Amino acid sequence: MKERQTKSRLAIRELLVSAKQPLSATELIEALLRLGLAVNKTTVYRELEKLLKKNEISEVDFGEGQKRYELTHGDHHHHAVCTECRAVVELEIEGRLGDILSMVTKQSGFRIEKHLIEFFGVCEACQS
Ligand SMILES: [Zn+2]
Ligand SMILES: [Zn+2]
Predict the structure, then answer these.
(1) The CATH number of the domain where 20 resides is what?
(2) pLDDT tens string 37-48
(3) What is the distance in A from the centroid of ligand 2 to the CA of 1?
(4) Do 8 and 39 touch, CB atoms closer than 8 A?
């Protein structure tokens, strides 16, 4: 049992390394099954939870009703998502965002712990 969990965790990490964009648990499960690994939902969610805790992967939310996962790389960042082909582009907007966050803190009095800012539109390839 333990052996299999380790194997699926390695496989999940591998899949996220080679993925061009954040993957959902459903996509991960499909890919694992295609690799011939007998995984179930519970195992995959448990392994994702562990990878999240170790900060090896990060959650992203594109408002689809399910989270997506990507390898943790660099600082917290945002994405532009193509609504036609689901292409994902990584964005660096942290500088300006600092101003917005201090404005939010000022107006709400909250200690802001996280935010979700993703952008949706049609990528260059899909525009032509
Ligand atoms: Zn596109
Ligand atoms: Zn990203």
Answers:
(1) 1.10.10.10
(2) 888 899 999 999
(3) 32
(4) yes
